[in-house]
Amino acid sequence: MTEAYIRIQGSDQNGIYGKHTQSGSKKLIIHIHGMTHNMNYLLEVESAAFFTARGYDHYRPSLYSIEQDSRKLSNSTLSTHTRDIQSMIDYFANDYDEIFITAHSLGGLATVILNPQNITAISLWDPAFDVTHFWTRSTFLAHMPERKQYQLDYGNIFVISEELVDEIKLYPDQKCQELAAHITTPAQMIIPQESIFLASPHTSPESYANAFKGDFDLQHMDKANHTFSHAGNPDRLFNLTLDWFNRALAA
C-alpha cells in the first residue's frame, strides 16, 4: 500500500491537493470533506485507512489548502467546489473501472448540485441540506460587509465569502429535493442522531426517500454526531458505506 501527495489541475488553473492511497485496486473512493475540514482531519484519515484495507483505493483532497495556487476557504464557493469535484473525477476516470464518492456535510450538497455522471454509487454523510435554515437559528455568522465576507464561528473563527453564503441561500430543503430527483446514481444518506437536519424542523431525511429517483438507501445512526466523532462512530459509518458500495457493485 502506498500513499502519494498529488496535485490535480483544476478548471481555473488552481491546484487541488490531496492524498491518494493505493492498494492496487481498480475501485476508487473520492472523499469530499465538509466545510472547514481538509485531508488531514481524523474522519478523512480514518476513512482512507478503512477502505484501502478492504479493497478500495482512496483519494482525499483538500478543497482549499496552504499551497499558493490552491483555493482558500475565504474564496471558495459551492460553484468552485462542484468544478473541483468534477476535475478530480476526470483526473481518475481512465485509471479506475469503478469510482465512488463519499461526501460529508457541505461536500454532500456540492455533490448533489454537481450530480456527477459515470459514478458507481454515492454515500452522503449527514449532507448539509437547508443550511440557510441552520444558520438563521444560530449566531454562527457575522457579516463583514467592508470585506464582502463573513466570520463563521464554530469555536474556531473561519472566514468565508459573501458569494458562498449567497449561493447556499439558493438551496433550501425544497430545492435540495428537486436536485435529488435528477440523480439516478445509487445514493445513500447516513444520518446521525445529532444531525444537521435537527435545525430544519420543517423537513426530515425521510423526505428524501421519495426524492431520489435511483436506488436509495437511508440509514440512521444512534449515538452519533454530525462529524461522526463519538466513540465507535467512524467504523459504524464506514461499514454502512462499505455495505452500500458492495451492493452497488453486485447489482
Q: Give the class-level CATH name.
A: Alpha Beta
Structural class: alpha/beta
Count up the helices.
7
Q: Could you name the ranges where pLDDT drops below 50 across 5 or more consecutive residues?
A: none
Compute the separation of the termini in Å.
Answer: 28 Å
CATH-derived architecture: 3-Layer(aba) Sandwich
Order of helices and strands: EEEHEHEHEHEEEHHEEH
Q: CATH fold name, please?
A: Rossmann fold
- C-alpha-based Rg, rounded: 17 Å
Overview of the structural elements:
There is one protein chain. By secondary structure, this protein is of the alpha/beta class. It has one domain: 3-Layer(aba) Sandwich (Rossmann fold), CATH 3.40.50. It contains seven helices and eleven strands. Helix 2 (78-92) crosses helix 3 (106-114). The longest helix is centred in the last third of the chain and has 18 residues, at 233-250. It starts with a strand and ends with a helix. The mean pLDDT is 94.
